[in-house]
Write a structure and sequence with these properties.
With 64 residues, the protein is of the alpha+beta class. It has one domain. Helices cover 42% and strands 14% of the residues. The protein is built from two helices and three strands, in the order ααβββ. The chain has helices at residues 9-22, 26-38, and strands at residues 42-44, 53-54, 57-60. The longest helix has 14 residues, at 9-22.
């Protein structure tokens, strides 16, 4: 169905970069870093800013 991807140590590097560059919360930055590592191109979320592109990861609000 969907591949399981376990975050590695370098996920934290991506987390720190996203957290500082975009002023994200801890959990939002960690979610985005894990998605980027897993090769996700689009994240559907009503919490993050819709239309924002986080270094190749687009955020889409499914309710807009």
């Amino acid at each position: 169905m969907f591949p399981l991807v376990i975050p590695a140590a370098h996920t934290l590097e991506g987390y720190f970069e996203l957290h500082s560059r975009f002023s994200l919360s801890h959990w939002d930055a960690m979610l985005l870093a894990a998605c980027k590592e897993a090769g996700v191109n689009t994240l559907y979320s009503e919490e993050l800013d819709a239309g924002t592109n986080y270094d190749g990861l687009a955020v889409v609000n499914p309710f807009v």
